[in-house]
Amino acid sequence: MTANKNNVPEFSELSLFDISPALSSFLPEDFCTSNHIALLDDPSAKDAQNIRIGVLDRKDQDLIAKAQEIIGKKVEPVQLNAYEISKALSQIYNIEADSSAGTNLQLNSSSEIDFSKDRKPNLILQDILSIALQRRASDIHIENYNEDVDMRLRIDGTLHQVTTSLSPSNIQRVIACLKIVCDLDHLERRKSQDGRFSALYDDEGNSRKVDFRVSIVPGNHGQEAVIRVLDSKRFILDINELGMPSNILNSYKRLVNYPNGLILTTGPTSSGKTSTLYATVQSLVNRGLKIMTAEDPVEYEMDKVNQKSIDEFMDFSDYIRSFLRQNPDIILVGEIRDAETAEIAIKASTTGHLVLSSLHTRSAIGTVSRLRNLEIPDDYISDNLLGSIGQRLIRRICEECKEEQTQTDEMLSLFYDKKENVQHYHGKGCESCNGLGYKGMIGIYELFFPNEEISTAISNGTSVAELNNMAKDQGFVPLVDNALDKAHEGVTSLEEISLRIGPKFPHAN
Ligand SMILES: [Zn+2]
After folding, report:
1. Which residues surround ligand 1, an ion (CB under 5 A)?
2. 107 CA to centre of ligand 1 in angstroms
3. Ligand 1 geometric centre to CA of 237 (Å)
4. Inside any domain, residue 494
């Protein structure tokens, strides 16, 4: 196991401070928002001595001196993350967190898109964001080519080209506009910049705040942008509605009732892991337990859950270490990416905490080999791994144009080792699904939870291939078989399973 990292920044929790608009008169709002600093104590209180201020970097002496000068009392810097500082500022100055500029953007579910050539850049940006929300896109890609600008939306996991009024003559002004709403340096065109903003979205009369995360990079033909849509409506927050088959759901609910241990969700990017973790936390929230999360970033704010976004000052392992001093019952770690995080997460799970996290592996049983690669000893894995969920999101066949489908022998051979008399379906494409044949997505799951025999096998160093066979003997149903059930029910197609999960028999029978 690797040595512990020293110099963990002292960390504090926003909820420990009494933050109110009464603090707004001691430090100017402009000063606070531009320097990411928030006043945490009331300098006019009778016993006020060391006035605590929240900062991103406690070593920024110039900034701390400036704040001290304005307040006129000795200040003590407290390390907070960017998310907490914007949250504090929103409470003190009554402003929208993350970006005050962003909420000027009003997006609408019914707005018609205007393709006129001389449309202003800020309106083009509004058009782009509105189309993305209307079509339930998860991200927006704007790319520059020699004499052309491409805009594509990722909808249900697949990129689709969209027509807009973007052109080589206005694209750079639209990107400058995007940088302004993110509070980025719009004159800087040679370096990559990341930012975020929020907007109000009027969805058929119901208004809600939607967050966007932006990445701008210089390209051969000018700057390019990727905008991630963090629409809280896209998260399923009820564990019963994730689409797990009832046997998996029941076993999973039993696992998350353990007071300590490690539960992992696995799968590639955009496989719904965050939804599973949020729904799990939500199912535990009303039990009088202290729940702390470290996320990259916080995508959906949950009541009664203490959530932190990782940043350049505090990564996942720093947060888990800090959490352990605050005596939580449940810790959610967005992702285990490195040996250090794996080690501290396992350590937390051995000392009376239920730890939920995600890992990038192809399968639920693959968590064992991944944890081994992250230098976790076999007996630690067998003692603490309660279970792991493997998952994918796959597209649903459009109900409006669904029809029976005769499959080729080649496709059938990928999924069946003998001729089986089962019906398959596909969508032939209609207006309702924009000709795609699919509409919406569904989660496909597998659940691996080691029983005593498998635990012993893990601690003895048994290979993952062998563990796989043992688990199957004891009723483990792999992802691909759960997906095939959905194909037989007419929910999805064999093509879709082959694309997102892969064949059951990759080598010719
Ligand atoms: Zn259709």
Report:
1. 398, 400-401, 427, 430, 432-433
2. 27
3. 28
4. no
405 CA distance to ligand 1 middle (Å): 15
Spacing, Cα 490 to ligand 1 middle (Å): 14
Domain boundary among 188, 208, 232: 232
Residues 324 and 454 grouped into a single domain: yes
425 CA distance to ligand 1 centroid (A)? 12
CA distance 277 to 298: 12
CA of 159 to the centre of ligand 1 (A): 18
Residues 262 and 378 in one domain: yes
SS3 348: helix
Query: Domain check: are 164 and 54 in the same one?
Result: no
Alpha-carbon torsion 90, 96, 99, 104, what sign?
Answer: negative
- Kindly give the distance from the C-alpha atom of residue 210 to the centroid of ligand 1, in angstroms, as a whole number: 28
User: Per-residue pLDDT tens for 413-429?
Assistant: 999 998 888 999 999 99
Residue 138 and residue 121 share a domain: yes
- Are 218 and 121 a contacting pair, CB within 8 Å? no
d(CA 57, CA 34): 14
Residue where a domain terminates, one of 39, 71, 95: 95
Mean pLDDT split into 10-residue runs, the chain, 509 residues: 42 77 89 88 84 87 92 88 80 60 67 76 89 90 89 89 86 89 83 88 82 90 91 81 94 96 93 93 92 89 88 91 93 96 96 96 95 96 97 95 94 91 94 88 95 96 96 95 96 95 82
Verify that 132 and 263 share a domain, yes or no: no
CATH of the domain at 466: 3.40.50.300
CA atoms within 13 A on the CB side of 285: 18
Count of CB atoms within 10 A of residue 4's CB? Answer: 12
426 CA from centroid of ligand 1 (Å) = 10
Domain extent, residue 202, equals 103-232
Token code pair at residue 124: 């083009």
- How much distance in Å is there from the Cα of 181 to the middle of ligand 1? 37
Residue 350 lies in a domain: yes
Residue bearing tokens 């339930």: 136
| Predicted confidence (pLDDT) per residue in 147-197, tens digit | 889 999 998 888 999 888 888 888 888 998 899 888 888 778 888 999 888
**Are 196 and 86 within one domain?**
no
111 C-alpha to center of ligand 1: Å? Answer: 24
**CATH number of the domain encompassing residue 74:** 3.30.300
From ligand 1's centre to the CA of 397, what distance in Å?
Answer: 8
Q: How far apart are CA 71 and CA 244, in angstroms?
A: 55
Give the distance (Å) from ligand 1 centre to CA of residue 432: 5
Tell me if 91 sits within 8 A of 29, measured CB to CB.
Answer: no
